[in-house]
């Protein structure tokens, strides 16, 4: 083989090896199912998936190690040198059946949005869930507002500049974003949500109503929960009681809250925040109902 051809062939071999590694990594991370990879290999035996060895394929599945691998190959009567695209019909059927059987009966991934009028206590309920239900992934939003005393970067919010927020939007890193109370911008970083859902975890977003509507449009399978105050008077009391906003800001938030309360009917579920622990439990129970 002439030198140039040899160089090209080896580059091609490297490219293929990398592509195979990417496919295996996607099985390992759960981004792709083993079944999908096998079916692709069947459709295109000469493609990348088809060129993966059965041994490598099985080892990329979490929970299959070398010992199990040998037992599986023996049981399926498949030689370890075989590639997915080169399996005989019966071997393929046996392997497929094996994969289908052992597909994790995973909880369906669940995205839950908790919204509601201002000062209804969404933040408190979300914080309670963060502290008591560690299996729920609570989204940390980015915001252009300044930290309040006691708020921690990366826990309560990612505090970013206006330019930083623009960058997040430009790079399509936000699942949704909105200007809240005509003042600051808030948005949900997309990547951590995608990761949580890919891992089979539930993710909870505590965001405003405009954001909830955007999530519904982008991910119709999301469950929308509306947190209600026990009464309007109680809502006003909570808003004034917080004392972190000045008079003008309070008025503005009350006006927003009135409009927001009217949106309750658009939501899948309504939970009354009469008691934080109880309301938090109800939200988590809703996640479980849908997670099974
Ligand atoms: P605060 O400034 O009091 O922490 O939050 C103000 C409002 O912003 C709350 O109603 C909260 O739900 C909403 N919010 C927080 N994070 C997000 C977000 O990522 N997206 C949207 N749309 N609203 C958010």
Overview of the molecule:
With 292 residues, this protein is of the alpha/beta class. It has 12 helices and 9 strands. It has a 5-stranded parallel β-sheet with strand order 2-7-1-8-9, sandwiched between helices. The protein has a 4-stranded mixed β-sheet with strand order 4-3-6-5. Strand 5 and strand 6 (184-189) form a beta hairpin. Helix 2 (34-43) packs antiparallel against helix 5. The longest helix has 27 residues, at 3-29. The mean pLDDT is 90. Residues 118, 122-123, 141, 145, 176, 178, 180, 186-188, 206-208, 210-211 line the site of guanosine-5'-monophosphate.
SSE layout and pairings?
Elements: H1 3-29, H2 34-43, H3 54-59, H4 66-76, H5 89-102, E1 110-115, H6 122-132, E2 136-138, E3 141-143, E4 157-159, H7 162-170, E5 174-180, E6 184-189, H8 190-198, E7 202-206, H9 209-218, E8 223-228, H10 232-242, H11 247-261, E9 269-272, H12 276-291
Parallel strand pairs: 1-7, 1-8, 2-7, 3-4, 8-9
Antiparallel strand pairs: 3-6, 5-6
Helix pairs in contact: 2-5, 6-12
Bound molecules: guanosine-5'-monophosphate.
Q: Figure out the total of helices.
A: 12
Low-confidence residue ranges = none
Radius of gyration: 25 Å
Biggest sheet strand line-up = 2-7-1-8-9
Q: How far apart are the first and last residues' alpha carbons, in Å?
A: 58 Å
Per DSSP E runs of 2 or more residues, the count of β-strands stands at 9
Bound ligands, each once:
guanosine-5'-monophosphate
Biggest pleated-sheet summary? 5 strands, parallel
Structural class label? alpha/beta
Beta-strand percentage range: 5-15%
């Amino acid at each position: 083989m002439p030198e140039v051809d040899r160089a090209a062939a080896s580059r091609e071999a490297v490219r293929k090896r990398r592509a195979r590694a990417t496919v295996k990594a996607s099985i390992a991370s759960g981004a792709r199912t083993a079944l999908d990879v096998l079916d692709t290999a069947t459709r295109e035996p000469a493609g990348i998936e088809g060129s993966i060895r059965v041994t490598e394929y099985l080892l990329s599945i979490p929970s299959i190690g070398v010992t199990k691998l040998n037992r599986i190959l023996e049981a399926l009567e498949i030689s370890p040198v075989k590639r997915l695209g080169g399996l005989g019909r019966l071997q393929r059927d046996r392997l497929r059946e094996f994969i289908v059987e052992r597909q994790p009966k995973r909880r369906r991934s669940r995205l839950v949005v908790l919204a509601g009028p201002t000062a209804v206590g969404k933040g408190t309920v979300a914080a309670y869930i963060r502290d008591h239900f560690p299996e729920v992934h609570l989204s940390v939003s980015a915001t252009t507002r300044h930290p309040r005393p006691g708020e921690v970067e990366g826990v309560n919010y990612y505090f970013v500049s206006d330019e930083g927020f623009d960058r997040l939007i430009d790079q399509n890193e936000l699942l949704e974003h909105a200007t809240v109370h005509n003042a600051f911008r808030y948005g949900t970083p997309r990547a951590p949500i995608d990761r949580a859902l890919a891992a089979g975890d539930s993710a909870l977003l505590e965001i405003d109503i405009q954001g909830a509507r955007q999530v519904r449009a982008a991910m119709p399978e999301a469950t929308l929960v509306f947190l209600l105050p026990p009464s309007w008077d109680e809502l006003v009391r909570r808003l004034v009681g917080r004392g972190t906003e000045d008079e003008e800001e309070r008025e503005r938030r009350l006006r927003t809250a009135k409009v927001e309360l009217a949106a309750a009917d658009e939501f899948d579920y309504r939970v009354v925040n009469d008691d934080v622990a109880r309301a938090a439990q109800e939200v988590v129970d809703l996640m479980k109902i849908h997670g099974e």
